[in-house]
Amino acid sequence: MNRQRAITVALVALLGLVAALGVFDPLFDAGDVPAPARVALIILTMAAALWITEALPLFVTSLLILLLCLTWLRASLLAHDVVVARERFTAPFFSDVILLFLGGFVLAAGLRKYQLDEQMARWVMRRSHGSVPRLIAGIMAITAVLSMWLSNTATAAMMLSLCLPIVSNLREGDPHRQAIVLAVPFAANIGGLGTPIGSPPNAIAIEYLRNLDAAPSFARWMLANVPLAAVLLAIAWLLLTRMYRGDPTPPTLDAAPLSLAPTPARRLTLAVTLLTALGWLTTGFHGLSAGTVGLVPVVVLFGVGALSARDLRRLSWDVLLMMGGGLCLGAAIAVSGLADWLVARLPLEGASTYAVVLVFGVTACAMSSVMSNTATANLLMPIVIGLGAASVSPILLAVALACSLAMALPISTPPNAIAFSSGTLQARDLIVPGVTLTVIGLLLVGTVGLAWWRFVGLI
Fold this sequence. Notes:
Strand content: under 5%
Radius of gyration: 23 Å
Low-confidence stretches: none
Structural class: mainly alpha
Helix content: over 70%
Order of helices and strands: HHHHHHHHHHHHHHHHHHHHHH
């Protein structure tokens, strides 16, 4: 651990110690803030500091939240005659949303292992000849589609590896070099809006909505947000092709199809992927939850040996633990009374839904620009819940999408970082189009998006 991280950890530990000793009690009105809410506020502050600075691995912070909830917060609740079962804090780590994402990770591992995702990308790119704008459109389309179902980080890494040889064939100084590289992270970020598994904030929002009996089905989420993603994708394409004009002659594209033998394992992986996607889209018909459907690829692909124990160990368990920690933090904020106390002090009385959506959307974008979008969702959504069930649904959805719309900096999202690491871009190449897309996206969510969500019955 370097010196800066060690200092951050020491300060957070000191914060917890002085809080436990009651040093901060005079800062609160004892009759206004319940003691459990004070404990939850300290845990929230510690989690925010550790998530923002990444002084500890993000998943370690999540487990620290669980530890503090089971010991410190639960003891405070019991001392005030509030009985909360341990399962209230542990259940989020194996909730339906975690199963949903686990299924998505397993499908991604299967498609990647048998190169089916790369074959799809090459198929689309081979049909993008004729002009550079058409090539960029093809790259963005396949990147967005893959990001709806696979990890946007893995999708960006794969697509960038296919695009860099194209970029290397362009002359130095050709603006199309930046346009082609930027097309990958922008499309990966936008594509993640389209499905519940496209981005962790989406699934976190659905879990909170499920607790309010307002969770949309997989198909309804896609009906509500795929059109929005398509519009943003078209705007991003227009922005890139207008800002970065270069030689209209397309570069040489080496995207020959892979020679993939139709093995039983490859056929099974494709069949299970299609079956799982169909199961997610038809949850309203068969009655199984999306998380239950997500267990199908886990059982089948590992059960028949298409994926091995080594593949299991390579799954993004840290992301699942981080999501579980965020949901656990949300439970702590709710049961302690902190959510109600925080919301009562927000200057939102009398504000319209549009205004509240804009306030939380801008806040989510600002936070996600400098920290994990999953951590941002984990910190903001419990506060949103305290606004009340009547108005909370559109705000939760707006926060989820806003977390993925922050794409102005190299550190804003993993796809941005991957694209920046290629050496083709400078920070200013991301800032101007990134800020433009973020602002347009927020405006669409807060205006047309809300109207469309009402029209399709999402809110």
